Amino acid sequence: MARILRGKPVAEAILERTAAKVHELNDREIFPTLAIFRVGQKGADISYEKGAGKRCEETGVKVKHFTFDENVEPEEFYRVLDEANRDPSIHGILVFRPLPKDRFRDEELRNRIAPEKDVDGCTDLSLAGIFTNKDLGFAPCTAQAVIEILNHYGIGIRGKNVVVLGRSLVIGKPVAMMLLNRNATVTICHTRTVNAADICSKAEILVCTTGQMEMVTRDYTNEKQTVIDVGIDWNEKKQKLCGDVLYDDVEPFVEDLTPVPGGVGSVTTSVLVSHVAEAAERMNRK
């Protein structure tokens, strides 16, 4: 039976550190502020926005909400975004993506955010920082959450054989590079990988980020493996949230496993808020 790597204690530790940093900044008359941009009424976006707002309130980070109608024109949206980029009282910007594809190009959208305020690590500069192992921008919050969980539970990364299942620019590629930067030996598997289950089953750490609900079965794992499940989806048949991992099949078999919900996802908003505080500190270094 696996040790369950719950996200709550990890998130609480991050929030405690962040609150202390915010208090120090407040003493210097610096008030870390996050601007959240949302278009339309997507349930997932609204839920994440509420969660981020709660985390901000817990740590003393201020929040400004910019909400737009589903039919907003790019010119109006970018006008407000550019104002936030220039506003020195705003230290972090989060834009819920994707936006309507008939009017917005994702590459233009994410790179319109000022790199120093890109607290969700979506701009090319932030991603370049990960791939060059330099302090440019911030890591994507979900990728950082994976690292935070491993660190919190004392799961060593250096020298480990790690497989990342998934190659998206949002999580797969960045988390692979972040693990490589910490001296893991990293293999990336994807939809064109031959014998992916066999490759994954030899890993000491398996990071599942395919976006394919419950595709990872016991065949992908081994008894000494740590499995980090990044996926989240709604299972209509079971009427509950599920991840990439078929939990009941894998949990009795592996050594460590993150649950869904209550695992990686519960850490991401805490990482986001910590990035806002860090951005405020960076902008006010003398």
How would you describe the overall organization of this protein?
There is one protein chain. The protein folds into two domains: 29-116, Leucine Dehydrogenase, chain A, domain 1 (Rossmann fold, 3-Layer(aba) Sandwich); 141-265, NAD(P)-binding Rossmann-like Domain (Rossmann fold). The chain has 286 residues and is α/β, with parallel strands linked by helices. It is globular and about 50 Å long. It contains ten helices and eleven strands. It starts with a strand and ends with a helix. The longest helix is centred in the N-terminal third of the chain and has 20 residues, at 8-27. Helix 6 (141-152) crosses helix 7 (172-181). It has a six-stranded parallel beta sheet. Helices cover 41% and strands 16% of the residues.
In a nutshell, what does this entry contain?
The chain has 286 residues and is an alpha/beta fold.
Layout of strands and helices, then pairs:
Elements: E1 3-4, H1 8-27, E2 33-39, H2 43-59, E3 62-68, H3 74-86, E4 92-95, H4 106-112, H5 124-132, H6 141-152, E5 161-165, H7 172-181, E6 185-189, H8 196-200, E7 205-208, E8 226-229, E9 233-235, E10 240-242, H9 247-250, E11 256-257, H10 265-283
Parallel strand pairs: 1-11, 2-3, 2-4, 5-6, 5-7, 7-8, 8-11
Antiparallel strand pairs: 9-10
